[in-house]
Design brief:
Elements: H1 5-28, H2 39-70, H3 80-122, H4 134-141, H5 145-186, H6 188-191, H7 200-232, H8 243-266, H9 268-276
Helix pairs in contact: 1-5, 2-3, 2-5, 3-7, 5-7, 5-8, 7-8, 7-9
Length: 278
Amino acid sequence: MSDNWVVQNLENALATWDEKLAEIWALLTQSPEVFRGGALWNIATSIHGTLQAIGYALLVLFFVIGVVKTCGSFADLKRPEAALKVFVRFALAKGLITHGLELMMALLSIVQGVISKIMGAAGFGTPQPTVLPADIITAIENCGFFESIPLWAVTLIGGLFVWVLSFIMILTVYGRFFKLYMYTAIAPIPLSSFAGEPTQSVGVSFLKSYAAVCLEGAIIVLACIIFSVFAATPPSYDASAAAITMVWGYVGELIFGMLVLTGTVKMADRVVHEMIGV
């Protein structure tokens, strides 16, 4: 590493960004069951098991409400097709409450497989590091004291932006994990709504929202891959220009890409919700 303060500041900021990207990459390929040693998952599944009893009680309530609202009278239930229909609905709703956790994990596993396929197709095992070009390092090191003053300001502002954006990124990914735990814990209650035809929209919306949270990982991976290629591409700057011009152009272009990436990650849930019509 260079002993120049300006270069060190830029390289430290880029190292922080690469570190957070690598952490995001690892988190997106990690199962909630092993995240943070599995302690959070154990709490979520424990709450899920406790709420199953409430789910079964609501199952009966939604079933009765559905029968009352969809059948003109109890005489309608004497028809075999009507009786079979309500029985199948009740059985499916009960199965969803009993095995909802397994079904949700199966859906998450499918999405994790999609994420792995995206990484494999792009040829990325890990995100590519963002490296400060050698021409810029040389130009900075050749600057005198007074010439370095504006460079300090540019690198301080640029470094601050990089730090803030990297932490916004990682917080968004952690937020996705927390949403997965909350959906898992509360699942028996919305799934019980499938017992009644008038209330089944609640369960459908819940499953769509859960699928959207799972698919957020695929959108984030795509965004990180695109940014990695963008950051690895040689920046457009004039090697014969003044050092401040070169640094300003490089840092500005890099921060622009980071802003786009962070905005895409922040809006990943909205993008997926629009895709599946939630």
